Amino acid sequence: MPVFWSLTGLAVLVVLVVLGVCLYCGYCLRRLGRPTRGKMIDPVSRPNSALVVIDVQEDFTRNTGKHAYAPQARDLALAAINREISAAREVGMEVIFVRNVFRDWPVILAMKLSAGGIGTPGREGLKFDRTLDVGSSPVFEKSIGDSFSCPDFEIFLAERKVGRLILAGLDACHCVQLTAKGALARGYDVEIREPATLTTAPENWAALKEGLRTAGAVLA
Questions:
Q1: How many of the other CB atoms lie within 10 Å of CB of 211?
Q2: pLDDT, tens digit, for every residue of 45-67?
Q3: Which end of the chain is more exposed for a tag (fewer CB within 10 A), N or C?
Q4: Are 134 and 97 a contacting pair, CB within 8 Å?
Q5: In sequence order, what are the beta bridge partners of 164?
């Protein structure tokens, strides 16, 4: 009997561990595609604007796999992003860069199995695209879609009294729209500069755009 109960206890423990791992994996993968929520801002005390350039990294812009951007579309978007950067700097607007590095091991494993490991730690492709004029602008890192998942990003916006965000970058159907939703949920004014975005799923963008407009975002 003691042996029986020992084996039964071990089996229960194994089942619980497997269940816990499965639940954690599901949690990590789900939160990739969910906007975050946070404290509402006071727009009156946030008169400034900022251009936020999202995930324009060579692992994504120079990817040649099945999720690659068409080179012509990529080059047009990169040129438009740099024009937005120049225009923002000319008027003294804050320009902020956000980069993505997947940190949760289930996501790292999924990216290695399905996409050659792009966006995972240690890769040369995590650097910003070679054409991007980053200069001395602040850079923030996130590990999921919504840029507001980085606490330092939100702190910086508060310190600079930013209440309006102009978004550019990629992917429009993922991190750009998730950041837009995270900003709208906090009371920011949001504008997406559509020519300065890229998406590998243009068939999904029309419906997402309509939802963002309904939520209060401006698409220009």
A1: 13
A2: 999 999 999 999 999 999 988 77
A3: N
A4: yes
A5: 49, 189
